[in-house]
Amino acid sequence: MPHFIAARFGIFVFLLVLFAGPILSAPARAEPFDPSTFDPAAPPAFLFGESVEAHEAVFAAECSAQTLQTFDPAEMPLAEISHEQVDCEGFAYYGAPRLAEFVFVDGALTHVWVLTGAEDLAGMRAAFEAAFGTPDHNVEGMFTTFIGHGAVVRYDIPEALYFAEAVTPAFAAWFDGMAEEAATNIQSAE
Q1: Within 13 Å of residue 125, how many CA atoms lie on the same side as its CB?
Q2: Cα separation of 5 and 139, whole Å?
Q3: Is the residue at 16 inside a domain?
Q4: Of 70, 131, 144, 158, which is the most buried if we count CB atoms within 10 A?
Q5: What domain range is 143 assigned to?
């Protein structure tokens, strides 16, 4: 009889170690993201006006992986000399690791696109409005702009855009044109 009890106890210990071990050693889950803690201001990692080289420490600290693309010839209308983009995987934004596309024109960071999820957009927009006030444009299904703050929430491609003061006139003109085109299309459809 004692062997029977020992055998059962041994099986119990084996099963406990087999199944409880991974559960007990699993990493703790991160706290759920609280959108009310989100600061929509341009992240400090965005060193507008600075070069790719000036961002090396940023990329090392903020990206789980990075890829430098050089476009020759430049594909940006703003570019006269050069156009480069660093794709930064794993950039922490709005509670999750994201792809951030750092765009450098003529050797200086001009803007950054941070790809998000469609499920994030309503909360992001609310945070942008709370911080920046009434948007310059709100084109349903396309974008909400805060030009004076160098920030945009895009809906057609779920993302946030941040841009340097130096390129504000170009982005303002582009989004003004897009908003005007959207309004014209809506009027034509009616």
Answers
A1: 22
A2: 73
A3: no
A4: 144
A5: 46-189
Q: Which of 117, 135, 115 is nearest to 125 (CA)?
A: 135
Where residue 94 falls (left for φ over 0; alpha for ψ -120 to 50; beta otherwise) is left
Pairing state between β 137-139 and 65-70: unpaired
Buried/exposed code over 107-127 (b: 16+ C-beta within 10 A; e: otherwise): ebbbbbbbbbeeebbebbbeb
One digit per residue, the tens of pLDDT, for the chain of length 190 reads: 454 444 444 443 333 333 333 333 333 445 688 888 999 999 999 999 999 999 999 999 999 999 999 998 788 888 999 999 999 999 999 999 999 999 999 999 999 999 999 999 999 999 999 999 999 999 989 999 999 999 999 999 999 999 999 999 999 999 999 989 888 876 666 6
Residue type, 30: A
Examine residue 12 and state whether it is found in any structural domain, yes or no: no
Residue 39 lies in a domain: no
Q: Which residues sit opposite 68 in a β-bridge?
A: 86
Split into its structural domains, the chain has a count of: 1
